[in-house]
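FAQ
Q: What does a multi-component entry look like?
A: The components come first, one per line:
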Amino acid sequence: MSCLQTIQDYGLRAIGYGERILPREGYDLCQQFTLIGSGLIWNLYFAVLALSIGFFIATAVALAKASGNPWLRQPADWFIFLFRGSPLFIQFFIAYEALVLLPRAGIDILGITVQTSWLTRAWAGALIVLILNTAAYSANIFHGALMAVPRGDVEAADAYGMTGWTRFRRVIWPSMLRLAWPSYTNEAIFLFHATTLVFFSGFPAFQQQGDALYYARFFADRTFNPFVAYPIAAAYFIAATLALIWAFGRVNRRLNRHLPGAAKRIRYRPLLLR
Amino acid sequence: MFSYCSDPSQLEGLVWLSCYLTTGTHMLFYASFGTVLLLLAITAPLALLLGYGGAMASRSGFAPLRWLGKTYTSMVRGIPDILFFLFVPIALDQAFEWVRHQVLCDSSQPVRQGNDFVVCAAAKLPLNSAADWVHNAYGLFLAIIAFSVVFGAFAANVLYGAMQAVPRAQLETAEAYGMNPRQVTRRVLVPQMWVYALPGLSNLWMILIKATPLLFILGVEDIVYWARELGGSKTSAFAYPHPDWRLYYFLALLVFYLLMTAISERVLGRVTARLSRGQATLGGEAQRKAVPA
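Then the predicted structure of the entire assembly, as tokens:
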């Protein structure tokens, strides 16, 4: 079987197109590169959606945490404590077990039956967990940045007569993002790497449609050789991480464009933040 | 456990629960919390040691050693840690078995035959005849090595950054006093780096705590394994039948982890305050001013 044929058969296997059965023989480099690469679609899907939705929730939670009203602040504190204080792995299990308990037939709300079975599938259930998880971590980062917004910026906005939403959108929010961005880049990388956990926790891989690491383990188990499949997966992740750092670096430059010399390259220092 | 537990089917309510929660398998479940704590207790110092080695190697003047250190410190940046947790144990296991195969068996036979990894019976680790606990202990041993390697790389990142953060002037002063490089490292660099390393190391400790449930992926009978085993629905064939209670077991694990992280945060806050004392940093300055003259 030529490599082109393999790519046609397995290039989109992770999302259910192409050959139905996973390869049973050969396990050559072409197969491994193709299938692990197709698994990466899931990692990108989870990371992109979780980050883009979690970003807005995180901003809201950070504002709630910074608010003077205890009815807003307390729930925000608890939300952040709950999701930052427990392992993502356990969160996946709890979410899965809780979602499985929902009635199979769906829930009746005002005469309309809401289907719930899709929630137990990884693409929805795990995505919700990842969104909430990254929202909690990012909210903590954003809250720190919000506290560090220079007072002069806010006073200048006041002097221009800006209030409320306008002041927030045009002055406070951009400053907050600018200050939070290096840490937020770290968080994004962590979240991207955490997407590999999805198919190793409570959520089963439906019809063997898994992520890059799921297929890497598949090959490592079949060939008893971890020295091929895992480095391939690692290479994919390094490439994707570099792309992510590059994209976030572009945003960082834009956020700092009014400050000459301030837009330093983001140096990825893991762990100082999460 | 209790004398009244001899016939579980006759029990009701709290009495039933007290018997249920003290069965033999539940005792194993409680013991597995010890496994997690053991992993933390062994991994943390080992990772710190590896991290220190990695950071020192990255600063070395000898180029190959520096490259090795740099590779080690940067390997966790682009690659998910779970990948290492899957890779390191199986790679180590095969490495050990290969070495034993070369020594103990007829080494003319290749180890890799097609898609199989074949070593003779005498080279197997642990031996097929070994007791069950040996298999478990060996699995835990491989897991500890994997955790140490990964968190050692993380720690090397933190310590390298901390070493770079010690003011140059301090080191130059030490050199001006005629100390050789080794003395500069031992007397000036290492004592001063901790205050810079501590925020990163505290974070690392938190991440290590939150990584412990990954033992389950490595096949160790840890708390996640037992929570799934015990929580799964039990038919009336079992002494204590119950529906699917996995959610409650996992909620118990959640509480355990929340407690662990909350307590750690408190302790680490105190340690930070202690280490900032007398340091030329903002934290140290604030403490100095707080003390009434």
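Q: Is there any commentary attached?
A: Sometimes. For this entry: Residues 105 and 120 of chain B are 6 Å apart (CA to CA).
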